[in-house]
Amino acid sequence: MLVLAFDTATDVATSALVRDGEVLGERIGAARTVLVEIDELLAGAEVEPSDLDALVLGTGPGSFTSTRIGLACARGLGLALSIPAAGVSTLAALASAQPGARAVIDARRREVFVAGPRALSPDELELEPGTVCIGNGAVRYRAALERLGAEVPPDDDPRHLPRAVLHAALARDYVPVENIEPVYARLPDAELSRT
Predict the structure, then answer these.
(1) CA–CA gap between residue 31 and residue 66 (Å, rounded)
(2) What is the largest CA-CA distance in the chain?
(3) What is the Cα–Cα distance from 94 to 88, expressed in whole angstroms?
(4) Which of 60, 102, 117, 144 could form a disulfide with 67 if both were Cys (CB 3.0 to 4.6 A apart)?
(5) What does pLDDT average to over the chain?
């Protein structure tokens, strides 16, 4: 099965092309360039969009706008190609990079997204001493997490990226792409400003 996986929920978008568990290529970019990255990924593997059997989409939580960009791209591709999709939590994919690691995504507003999913202040996290925290939230709030006893790998450690290859490995239930819903964990900024 040939799968195109991508995640745009964080400040770094990742995409991967995987055939029966074998990685044919990976790209790192930004949400706004995800379609360019996908096109280059397919061209590099000498694969046509019509060859794809399924999509895997990172569903967040993360940036509201970036998550919506990924969802819109997946829906457009899935509907145009008549292929199913699977949604995989960005937190779950990040955590799968290292067994026992805690995924921490920057939620802005001095908060992080963690499993649940939920948004809270980094100082509110309950961590066992020595817990490895990975993700852009772990990098941004390194000092707070280390005060709580966590270990945060160096900023350039690849475990901090929500690699689409990990999403592809976790995908299980393929459904019509229009059934995939994003995970937000809190109201978007525009909704909060109205309340």
Answers:
(1) 6
(2) 50
(3) 10
(4) 60
(5) 95
**For residue 37, what are the contacts with CB-CB under 8 A and spacing of at least 6?**
6, 13, 15, 27, 28, 29
Contact 68, 182 (CB under 8 A): yes
> Model pTM?
0.92
In order of their start, the domains of the chain are: 2-90+161-190 (3.30.420.40), 91-158 (3.30.420.40)
pLDDT recorded at residue 35: 96
The three-class DSSP label of residue 19 is: strand
pLDDT (average), residues 20-48: 96
3-class secondary structure, 128: coil
At 149-165, the pLDDT tens digits run 999 999 999 999 999 99
Tokens 């829906």 -> residue: 75
Q: Which amino acid is at 114?
A: V
CB 149 within 8 A of CB 102: no
